[in-house]
Amino acid sequence: MQFKNHDLIESFEYPGVRLERVLVKDPGGHVVDGLHATRITLDNQAQLNSYTTAMVKGVILGMRQASNDRRCVAVVFTGAGTRAFCTGGNTAEYAEYYAGRPEEYRQYMRLFNDMVTAILHCDKPVICRVNGMRIAGGQEIGMACDFSVAQDLATFGQAGPKHGSAPDGGSTDFLPLFVGMERAMESCTLCEHWSAHKAHRLGLLTAIVPALKVDGAFVPNPLVVTDRLLDPFGRPVLGEPRSGEERARGKELLARGSVDLSLLDAEVDRLVTSLAMTMPGCLTKTIESVRKHKLQHWDRNRETNRAWLGLNMMTEGRAGFRAFHEGGRACREPDFLLLRQRLAEGATWGEELTLAVLEKAHASAENARG
After folding, report:
1. What does the alpha-carbon distance between residue 7 and residue 65 come to, in Å, rounded to a whole number?
2. For 61-104, how does the pLDDT look when each residue is reduced to its tens digit (9 = 90+)?
3. Interval 328-370: pLDDT, tens
């Protein structure tokens, strides 16, 4: 039969995004002829797989192409390397181009919103293969996926209020659905990162697997508590950071080992096989029905959020993203307390106030240089 072509473009080529076909296996481990999963990879390892404007376009078109692919069973959305799935928007691009240009950033946010929507509208189940950090916008596009399978050295969290933004690209909509209001509020406002074990305990992940290999054997993340223990108040501590001598020993073990993502790939393959062993139409309808809970919030808020995020690039966004990009390793944040003091005194936003709150970050950069 001669099929109609429903793709928006004839060929796919976007810098920083790779599309690959991955073999599908039956429950016995045998390759199934004529079926595959589509792997969409964010490939910007030098900047921890942060997405540029061009990469956002690539994800949109990649999801659309996979959705139309009649032989595709599922989409696997991941990042290159072992350090990060995605750490959000590209802060160099934000600081050097979008900061101070609210209308340009508003147009960029149209693309970002379309990327999230493309994930939520994909006709195939979307698995987030979390190969490393899933932070800020990376957390948001990860939560838009239907499943998340992570290696247990990965970390999860937000960056918004710490770096001049609000996590309105999906986290304020999705995170309460996963972990409840209190935990979502804590994550979105304080921007403290969670380990994979904690994220799994709170319901954010489908599955986690070890990735650290020491002396030929896999060991769980040595920097966090991996036993199902309770603290003196009866609260679970699974996934909480270790401290003192335990943390020091964990760092030594981490330094001795190497990261091996073979168990992560095996778990993703197992999930793809499980999805393939269902009625395709019924699976699609079920996924669409469950996604409605996310879409209800996303569709209600995304346009007003886009408008606010654009305007914010004239004020706190401009200062926050510049601080992150221009600061040294010791300080990538603006001077929060000075900013609050100056605003309380009646200061207005402009280059003078921006430079004043960036002074610590610039000093840190100078110290790092010499």
Report:
1. 6
2. 999 999 999 999 999 999 999 999 999 999 999 999 999 999 99
3. 888 999 999 999 999 999 999 999 999 999 999 998 888 888 7
**Secondary structure, 3-state, the chain:** CCCCCCCCCCCCCECCEEEEEEEEECCCCCEEEEEEEEEEEECCHHHCCCECHHHHHHHHHHHHHHHHCCCEEEEEEEECCCCEEECCECHHHHHHHHCCCHHHHHHHHHHHHHHHHHHHHCCCCEEEEECCEEECHHHHHHHHCCEEEEECCCEEECCHHHCCCCCCCCHHHHHHHHHCHHHHHHHHHHCCCEEHHHHHHCCCCCEEECCEEECCEEECCCCECCCCCECCCCCECCCCECCHHHHHHHHHHHHHCEECCHHHHHHHHHHHHHHHCCCHHHHHHHHHHHHHHHHHHHHHHHHHHHHHHHHHCCCHHHHHHHHHHHCECCECCCCHHHHHHHHHCCCCCCHHHHHHHCHHHHHHHHHHHC
Domains, the chain, ranges and CATH?
A: 17-211+260-301 (3.90.226.10), 327-369 (no CATH)
Q: Which of 61, 32, 56, 35 is nearest to 44 (CA)?
A: 56
Average pLDDT, the chain: 95
pTM over 0.85: yes
Q: Residues 191-218: what's their mean pLDDT?
A: 97
Tell me: pLDDT of 304 over 80: yes
